[in-house]
ATP phosphoribosyltransferase (Mucilaginibacter agri), 210 residues
Amino acid sequence: MKTLKIAIQKSGRLNEKSVELLKNCGLNFENYKSSLISPVSNFPLEILFLRDDDIPEYVQDGIADLGIVGENVIQETEVKVNYLQRLGFGKCSLKIAISNNSDITDLQHLNGKSIATTYPAILGKFLKENKIQSEIRNISGSVEIAPGLGLADAICDLVSTGGTLKSNGLKPFADVMSSEAVLIGRNGDEDNILIQELIQRIQSVLRAKE
Ligand code: ATP
Ligand code: ZN
């Protein structure tokens, strides 16, 4: 039977928990940080270590059969993949935040204001649904410093504890989406026996944690 490939984050917030989950499934592999692919010695599976942003497309295009990635990344890239299992880690929320001394008190006050984000697609959809017209400033990182620099009136960014917002003089203002790590697969692959076996192992690891 064809060896499966699962894509996980190479380094970052989801790496450690993704590796731990796969190891807890009884999969034996070397967690070499330097290599892109690690073969599993006791299951027909290879692990691909990638930037999280590339994972949804790799799965959609069939380069990987499965992937572990945050829902926020899937929604932003707007790819078509199957959600196979929520994984219970990497929990965070995408929030609009404003500076502590901002005079914005209502969602409608964002009309005509600028919002800096690395999530322009999700934010654009949220604003449209709420009939708000703001200028979306798409920047590639360090979004939380934008209001202080006068680059934007508000930001839309991932928040878990809120510590980063606080240390930049910002406060959460509106929830855009909540997210956690999920296992994704390709449409039409549902009957693959190896994929079913892996999903079952993952589910029993998650059940044991409850
Ligand atoms: P990469 O180098 O793979 O592109 P990255 O810098 O884009 O990594 P990380 O910061 O490692 O991404 O975050 C990976 C995922 O972890 C996020 O997409 C999100 O789903 C989740 N996450 C959980 N808590 C947070 C948080 N406080 N801030 C950002 N992401 C979080
Ligand atoms: Zn990324």
Summary: The pocket of adenosine-5'-triphosphate (ligand 1) is lined by residues 9, 12-14, 51-53, 70, 72-73, 90, 92, 158-160, 179 (CB under 6 Å).
